[in-house]
Amino acid sequence: xxxxxxxxxxxxxxxxxxxxxxxxxxxxxxxxxxxxxxxxxxxxxxxxxxxxxxxxxxxxxxxxxxxxxxxxxxxxxxxxxxxxxxxxxxxxxxxxxxxxxxxxxxxxxxxxxxxxxxxxxxxxxxxxxxxxxxxxxxxxxxxxxxxxxxxxxxxxxxxxxxxxxxxxxxxxxxxxxxxxxxxxxxxxxxxxxxxxxxxxxxxxxxxxxxxxxxxxxxxxxxxxxxxxxxxxxxxxxxxxxxxxxxxxx
Amino acid sequence: xxxxxxxxxxxxxxxxxxxxxxxxxxxxxxxxxxxxxxxxxxxxxxxxxxxxxxxxxxxxxxxxxxxxxxxxxxxxxxxxxxxxxxxxxxxxxxxxxxxxxxxxxxxxxxxxxxxxxxxxxxxxxxxxxxxxxxxxxxxxxxxxxxxxxxxxxxxxxxxxxxxxxxxxxxxxxxxxxxxxxxxxxxxxxxxxxxxxxxxxxxxxxxxxxxxxxxxxxxxxxxxxxxxxxxxxxxxxxxxxxxxxxxxxx
Lengths: 249, 249
Description:
Two copies of one chain form a homodimer. The first copy, chain A, has 249 residues and is of the alpha+beta class. Chain A folds into two domains: 5-99, Pseudouridine synthase I, catalytic domain, N-terminal subdomain (Alpha-Beta Plaits), CATH 3.30.70; 110-248, Pseudouridine synthase I, catalytic domain, C-terminal subdomain (Alpha-Beta Plaits, 2-Layer Sandwich), CATH 3.30.70. Chain A is 20% helix and 31% strand. Chain A is built from five helices and ten strands; from the N terminus they run E-H-E-E-H-E-E-E-H-E-E-E-H-H-E. Chain A has helices spanning 30-39, 76-85, 141-148, 199-211, 217-226, and strands spanning 5-13, 50-51, 60-70, 91-99, 109-120, 133-135, 153-156, 171-182, 185-192, 241-248. In chain A, strands 1, 2, 3, 4, 5, 6, 7, 8, 9 and 10 form a ten-stranded mixed sheet that branches. The radius of gyration of chain A is 19 Å and the shape is elongated. The relative contact order of chain A is 0.18.
């Protein structure tokens, strides 16, 4: 018997045609797709991929991280080439490396950075229609950025969480939040030590209301303190959301 | 009867699911799709769209221009909104304006700029898999740029033309040609007064051979002077090619 190794994937996926990360019988998921491709290199032995966090149906990832235990003896670069030949075109493993056995891609993640992409122009963009949320009316990005700063720091984010209560605590720490305009596109970047269900999409929906002039900047702080989901804006659609980066110590 | 107007569309399309610009019975084409959507605003009267040039199956456009004659009386911005509600998500009209009656989007085009996008990294990119050509081996972009300069100016481009002879003359003038690297992507930009069938894709395929070290820079000049398609590189795949801009006087 070969020794057990802890292998790590850095991977990207176009979430459009996936029902999210987590395996669910009868659905096409990223986890199931990757585990099936990986099993062909481990003599058919099923591995269990442990991601930094689940992403929902339709959400994309540029830099997801997942680890798994295996006794397969192949070098990491052979794993990289082989797994990619066995994957469909909407998932790619960019790197494979070996970690110490205790490494856990989920529990050891210190911070995650999500980006929400808004197309803000009168007409749609046929190339980014699956990778951005289209808002026709001109948004005030500077006001959205200022309003977003109310959410920085350690807070109870009940107001920006779907299907609460779904965790023991809704307290999280946002270490960085910014809204920037690049021509016809707005990027909302949110980096935190953890995220609640639909948290970035609820923040995006709320900040879009600020950008439209339907909410004031200080109302965003009031919504946060209300700890009431009904006070915040809509959950913005999944296609604009990307998991960009996971940071470990 | 309303007076005849000459309306112009600035439009973009994701070429993936189209069999090119030009109407062909039994195929989904950009021209047919746009003419059908436009006819709903002209009382069902068919219009004929005249583009700056045809694009082939799978080729994308960011800034295609097409004009048509109509007696429909609506303002241009009403046309813009209405046509977009009638178009599928992979074609968008970005602007509509009225031109003088003699304006011809095809004959009056002075220059067209095409961009060929190459992903140059060991792994694919799931987001740009339909919008770039993937080359795993590291390409020498600087050598490709220098080699490309042999093609600048007025030349007979027989060597970079598929299904020759398909025109009265294969003489064209390339006013600008450049290869630039942006991280894992290379952009080959070619601006000319006109293009032969598959010309940019044949140039891209040839320059990729230079980038791999299979052809020297000066051999590109020899291939041009040979006026022989068999001397040049392969026709690179359609998915990397974009019509970026059409210039009129």
